[in-house]
Amino acid sequence: MADAVTPGPIDAPADLAPGDVLLSVDGLTVDLPGRTGGRVRVLEDVSFQVPRGRVVGIVGESGSGKTMLLRSLLDLLPEGADRTWNRVMLDGADITSELPRRRLPAAMVFQDPMTSFNPLVRIGAHLAEVAQRFQRVGRRQATALAREALAAVRIPDPDRVLTRYPHELSGGMRQRAMIAMALLARPELLLADEPTTALDATIQAQILALLRTLQAERALTVLIVTHDLGVVAAVCDDVLVMKDGRIVEAGSVDRVFAEPRHPYTRTLLAAAPAAPDEPEPGEAAEGGDA
Amino acid sequence: MTSVPDVAATLDASTLVHRTRSFRSVSAILAIVFLVLVALVSLLAPLLPLDPSSTDLAARWQPPSAEHWFGTDELGRDYFARVVYGGRISLTVGILAMAAATAIGVVVGLVAGYAGGRLDDLLMRFVDFLSSIPWMVLVIVVSVFLKPGLWTIIFVIGAFSWMSTARLVRAETLSLRERPYVGYARYIGVRRVLVVGRHVLPDAAPTIIVAATASISNAILTESALSFLGLGIQPPMASWGSLLETAQGSLQAAPYLALIPGILILLTVLSFNVLGDALRQSVSEGGA
Amino acid sequence: MSAQTEELVRVDGLVKTFPLRNAWGRKTGTVQAVDGIDLTIRRGETLALVGESGSGKSTLGRCILQMEEPTAGTVMYDGVDLTALPRSERAAHHRSMQVIFQDPFSSLNPHRTALQNVLEPLTVLAPGDDVRERAIEALAAVGIEGDAVHRRPRAFSGGQRQRIVIARAIAVRPGFVVCDEPLSALDMSIQAQVTDLLLQLQRDLDLTYLFITHDLSVVREIATRTAVMNRGRIVELGPTAEVFASPQHAYTRHLLDAALTADPVRARARLERISARPEPIGLEPDGTSLVEVSPGHVVLR
């Protein structure tokens, strides 16, 4: 993971040939209109690279700009936002001038599945619409693809779920459906904005496990935004630490967690949950009783 | 670094909500200017050299000129004076009727929403009942028993237009009641009246303000309609609505007699609506 | 010290059901949010109530406080049967039982200043000439001083608002505080500060806490005993260290496994284990009574 200008320790891209980098962003800066007039700078000269096939975590607290980072990639910024960047490279090709006309081959999974689905439209229709749009197929085939996608995200009884409305599903199922919807767009890059924050711990773990599995199965590149270091530790290969609109540290998860260099990273790690239990006793007692 | 709440607030507004910047928008400023102007002129009318009643049959139906800014009417009276005094009446009715309707509506809405249960059912059925009576029939029946005039019309509008406000306030109250700090106040034993007044009402204010400005607009329009039909303000008093009624007879000869009060009604109602929007924005921004 | 004075709160057979309504408002069934709970909370301890959403833990907390009326069962506080008291007489006990909520943004009246918010319980539950001083003192104890007390909640950050909420709870000098997910809405670095504050206040003011949360890492730090809830029932209860070290119920083990940790190696291993598992079955708390497996440690079997 390389990083051009941030005031923090960064890792040199060990042996990253140009073809290995899927997305490279240089000098991204975003302004938003402030609440009382004036402008607020939410991202300041952000530069990073996303290697192909890796899971990259973007971690920071509220106000760090991590969500804005994701949204600026997909041009989903609030009204009045001002986005500038020096260079964006996709697969080695400079596409700076082509954006925002051209879309990134990316799909996004949002935090709150309730507000991401139209409550009046069934899941099947949601998914089929995406399939039709991005894979240019007819209605019937789109529905078949939708069913496949639901199965891919390990939803039991996909046929039944296709006919359900969003509010009839549990939180975990809705999130799986949203991931399925994202997959139907055949993205090379999957963006996830706090995908598990609103879920219970056990469901969270399942969804994260699912993301990992899907990523391996389909050679996806994943960008996950989260405030939870536990999520980063469990699922991510690389991590970008953000504070106040800047990237303060970047590198592989193993390195950053073992040897944090920036003081803010150290603060974050210190505040993070320690292992709740030492030698995995849950394992030992497994199968012991009802 | 600019404070975090700034950014959070902008994000909350979300891309889907068009942000008018409260009082800084052009339309809000224009609305306020217009209303202030109208209000000033109406208030100061007795001090101005205006004479709405002296007739001059030699100078009937004169178009607007330097001498008579709005021309003269069918009896040769200075129309500008007529319109100004008519405006006083229209605004008075609008404001007083709004005050009455809003007061009743807020009280009913708060009680129904907060108390819930049987009382809520009872009040809402009463609201439904009143809403379902054809309004015109109501007015005509009432005017049989009461002499048409200024106070009658204020009463009629005030007493029969509070229902929508009540519904709005009740809906707000129902959701506000669930907020943790309201629950906490109830828990520690704050008296119900205080809970509603201190914890529910302030957050219901934006809704109430919108309802109130809609109410003024509605009242002015209603009064104009009633007067136009002859059921409202009676001569020699005039309101913009009754002026419209009188102007009917001279539409060909003197269109300005109808145009002027008509446009004024439109601008006034529009201004109140724009003002209501701006007020609601600024009050809700000032809250949580 | 007799068992009587050691027990501050005692819950027996608590049941709370909510009616299920369909779109037309008609009752279509009931939901057992709390399905028969027996619990004691000892003076001076911190009992953690752990569970996921829908487990009933928040409802249980509210029933203990009498913010919700239990459908059945009794709640004894300091030897007094609260459920038997008429509403009017309960207020006196509310002074001693306070609550801290999850969302600092909606826990305070946004139109009143911090000081006014903290004054409210004082003027109602513990009136006196010195209420203002006591309110200021409470705010100072949580780190809000000087002119800041006259600001409205929107001028404060999430962590600071939560401190004001805490000040409001302790201003009346309660003996028992129910903390309902007090850290969930806060950033991680702020969570540590607020946790420290809660611990310090507990020492200074001799408080007993019922700490409701879904976050196991916090529990480890501050709870003496831990109760695990699932679908309205307690499935395991015991000294925290023991419950974590040798969880007896399948659901407890499942929860522990799902807890993410900031150690990449361990976190990945856990995730592997979870993805290898089939959809969790048999986690319904089947079982009829709490059986003691070691002193003070019970499991639903």
How would you explain this protein's 3D organization?
With 290 residues, chain A is an alpha/beta fold. Chain A contains eleven helices and eleven strands. Chain A has helices at residues 66-73, 113-116, 123-135, 139-152, 158-162, 171-184, 201-218, 229-235, 253-258, 263-271, 281-285, and strands at 21-33, 39-51, 55-59, 82-84, 87-90, 93-94, 106-109, 189-193, 221-226, 238-243, 246-252. In chain A, helix 7 links the parallel strand 8 and strand 9. In chain A, helix 3 packs across helix 4 (139-152), helix 3 (123-135) packs parallel to helix 6 and helix 4 packs across helix 6 (171-184). Residues 1-21 of chain B have low confidence and may be disordered. With 288 residues, chain B is mostly helical. Chain B has helices at 4-13, 26-44, 79-115, 117-132, 135-145, 150-160, 163-176, 180-188, 192-228, 240-247, 256-286. Helices cover 70% and strands 0% of the residues of chain B. Chain B starts with a helix and ends with a helix. Chain B has a single domain (10-286), classed as Orthogonal Bundle (MetI-like fold). Chain C is α/β, with parallel strands linked by helices. Chain C folds into two domains: 3-96 and 175-187 and 204-300, Rossmann fold, CATH 3.40.50; 105-173, no CATH class. Chain C has eleven helices and twelve strands. The longest helix of chain C is centred in the middle third of the chain and has 18 residues, at 188-205. Chain C starts with a helix and ends with a strand. The model of chain C has no long low-confidence stretch (mean pLDDT 86).
